[in-house]
Amino acid sequence: MKLHIHHPGRKTTIALFAVLFLVLGVMDIAYNRPARASGVAQWGVTFSHTFGKYIGIDWRELYFAILDDLKVRNIRIPVYWPVIEATEGNFSFDDYDFMVREAEARDAKLILVVGKRVPRWPECHIPEWANGRSQDEQEAALKNAIIKTVERYKYSDAVVAWQVENEPFLVLFGECPPLRAADLDAEIALVKLLDPLKPVIVTDSGELSVWLPAYKRADIFGTTMYRSVWSDHISPYIGYFTYPLPPQFFWLKANISRALYGDKPIIVSELQAEPWGPEFSRILTMTESETAETMSHTQFYDNIAYAREAGFSEVYLWGVEWWYAMKEQRGDPFYWEAARELFK
Predict the structure, then answer these.
(1) Which alpha helices (H) appear in the chain, and where do they start and end?
(2) What is the CB neighbour count within 10 angstroms for residue 278?
């Protein structure tokens, strides 16, 4: 599956924002403002059990390995609407009951992501039975799924926060209908009504967004950090591309956001730790040279160092399913072992 970018009429706006922040970042560096120095206090991972199944992994075995081998204690988990409500009105939470129960047994902390736009391609995850419905009908059904999810897990000691949708203002990536801000606001309000004790996380792209619409809605704001990607965002000829952005770029965006909408915790919700190629389906069959374009052994360590220098205290790595598959299916344990050292 090739990753096409939709809504080409918006490319100019996004490019202008990117240029603006790049210029401001350079000015910031020119005035000798370093990235805020603070060590990462908590490392975690995002775990998608459906992606694990897609690449041929026993996802329960992998989940145990994350908890017991890597000793990860902070995990962000997307709650996929098609998984919990495969047929209309019939809910099954077996997969998530398992994940929450095992996290509780180890004092692990979970962020559960609810909504229809949640992590992993194609970004929007909608049950087949809802595909033909109007957007209003879909939203009403989605709210019911959110209610069922929050009510089920709000009393779990393992669940420490709710994330509502994933990068909801990133319109250039994913197979998703245009965002309706009123729907996002209603979902956030619903989660807060159902569970007023836990914070709500709203996320945005670190490189392609200005953060402000997401930041102002969040109790905790989450940014992505992708360093080297395959992209046709700006031109169909770019291909592999490394963002020329220093860590201070994130420091600047954080301080602009705080100046406008108050001081809030900021986490790195996705730190790139797997390769990004033109075809999602080929992630496990990429050659060594293709993998090295965006996630060489050196790049893995460089991204860790970059996140440390950016100055945010909580970072969730993206790619744990791929590390495990590389170890088990390709005989390359490097990424898994490097992560083990990190989580020590």
Answers:
(1) 11-30, 49-54, 59-64, 81-84, 94-105, 135-153, 181-194, 212-215, 248-261, 288-295, 297-310, 320-329, 334-343
(2) 15
Contacts of 248 (CB under 8 A, 6+ apart): 25, 28, 29, 33, 34, 35
| pLDDT tier for residue 236 given thresholds of 50, 70 and 90 | low
Closest CA to 160 of 123, 115, 200, 126: 200
DSSP 95: H
Strands 239-242 and 228-231: antiparallel
**CA proximity to 136, closest of 183, 93, 173, 99:** 183
C-alpha dihedral sign at 124, 77, 162, 252: negative
Cα distance between residue 309 and residue 250, in whole Å: 10
Beta bridge partners of 318: 46, 272
Say how many CA atoms lie within 13 Å of 108 toward its Cβ. Answer: 27
Domains and CATH numbers, the chain: 8-343 (3.20.20.80)
pLDDT at site 179: 85
∠124-232-48 over CA atoms, to 5°?
35
Each residue's pLDDT tens digit, 57-73: 999 999 999 999 999 99
- Rounded CA-CA distance 300/65 in Å is 20
Residues in contact with 170: Cβ distance below 8 Å, sequence separation at least 6, in sequence order: 204, 205, 208, 209
Q: What is the DSSP letter of 3?
A: -
